[in-house]
């Protein structure tokens, strides 16, 4: 940073009002200058040429607390990810509250509806495989399942026709208490054995399933689980690269800022020049008297010429505003990067 004993205009310095001077600054010789309203203000002479170059951490305790908080957050996240089972979020649960495919149901990954009637969807059981048979002769008489408090056994016990007839006459639901119906089913969302008769109601089932299939979400979670080490390394590398970026930005802020501004202005200039050249090119086609171009080409050139003519005017305006804006904030940019140049 340049050392300059000349007092800058008041709108280019950092002003410290009387009564708000820090103890550190109050021990130094203060300079009194007028602000933009003519009021006398006292400032630290070191601030006349811009922000201080000699800066450091002003709150060590806060920094240590922040580092400790980040360390605790990383530790909790690691423990939760390594010891938790996020796949349970997508699991189906039986009446005992045990997830199919986990714990005591680890060998029974599919949820099966013992009674496929609307009022009995709570009577479910975890099974090893969803029943699928070609005809009634090959229909199984029992399912390989894990019994629970509502479904005591998975042996076939279902006379739906007579049960519905009795229900219609007596309005008693007790007849369904121990029912276990075995029916053709398909695996829905890689979690549920769903009756084929109900799936047939959805003409677009395949499209529906491909868009909302839970096995896709499960695949995402499994991918995250298998690649967690790579994810941790990626976070560490990203954090390190961020620190390196901040370090180089601190050292090269001036170069980066002025280079970016220069390239921006050069880009605007080239864009304006190209639009102007296209305008002239189409004007030449329109003014051609040698018959080199067809009538259709001349008509298209007329439309294109107007487009590029307007674009040229717009680009000239943008360039003018960019240059004027740079002139207006030049000192602010210089002061903002003063510690780095």
UniProtKB/TrEMBL annotation:
Report how it sits in the membrane: Multi-pass membrane protein
Q: Which residues cross the membrane?
A: 56-76, 229-248, 255-274, 310-330
- First-listed, main subcellular location of the protein, grouped into a coarse class: membrane
Superkingdom of this protein's organism: Eukaryota
> What UniProt keywords are attached to this protein's entry?
Glycoprotein, Membrane, Transmembrane, Transmembrane helix
Q: Name one GO molecular function term.
A: transmembrane transporter activity
Q: Where is this protein found? A: Membrane
- Name any GO cellular component annotation: membrane
- Family membership: Belongs to the CTL (choline transporter-like) family.
Entry protein name: Uncharacterized protein
């Amino acid at each position: 940073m340049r050392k300059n004993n000349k007092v800058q205009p008041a709108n280019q310095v950092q002003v410290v009002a009387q009564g708000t001077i820090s103890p550190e600054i109050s021990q130094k010789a203060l300079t009194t200058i007028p602000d933009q309203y003519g009021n006398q203000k006292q400032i630290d002479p070191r601030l006349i040429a811009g922000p201080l170059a000699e800066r450091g951490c002003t709150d060590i305790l806060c920094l240590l607390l922040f580092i400790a908080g980040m360390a605790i957050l990383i530790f909790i996240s690691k423990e939760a990810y390594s010891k938790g089972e996020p796949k349970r979020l997508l699991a189906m649960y039986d009446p005992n509250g045990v997830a199919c495919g986990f714990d005591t149901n680890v060998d029974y990954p599919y949820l099966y509806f013992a009674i496929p009637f609307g009022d009995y969807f709570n009577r479910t059981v975890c099974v090893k495989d969803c029943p699928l048979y070609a005809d009634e002769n090959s229909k199984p008489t029992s399912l390989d399942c894990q019994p629970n408090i509502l479904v005591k056994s998975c042996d076939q016990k279902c006379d739906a026709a007579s049960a519905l007839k009795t229900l219609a006459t007596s309005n008693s639901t007790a007849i369904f208490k121990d029912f276990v119906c075995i029916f053709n089913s398909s695996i829905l969302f890689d979690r549920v054995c769903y009756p084929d008769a109900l799936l047939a109601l959805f003409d677009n089932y395949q499209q529906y399933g491909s868009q909302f299939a839970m096995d896709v979400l499960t695949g995402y979670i499994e991918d995250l689980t298998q690649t967690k080490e790579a994810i941790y390394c990626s976070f560490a590398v990203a954090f390190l690269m961020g620190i390196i970026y901040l370090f180089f930005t601190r050292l090269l802020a001036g170069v980066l800022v002025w280079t970016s501004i220069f390239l921006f202005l050069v880009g605007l200039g080239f864009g304006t020049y190209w639009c102007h050249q296209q305008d002239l090119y189409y004007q030449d086609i329109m003014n051609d008297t040698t018959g080199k171009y067809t009538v259709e080409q001349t008509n298209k050139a007329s439309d294109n010429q107007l487009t590029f003519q307007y674009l040229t005017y717009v680009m000239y305006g943008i360039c003018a505003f960019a240059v004027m804006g740079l002139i207006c904030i030049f000192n602010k940019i210089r002061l903002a990067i003063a510690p780095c140049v």
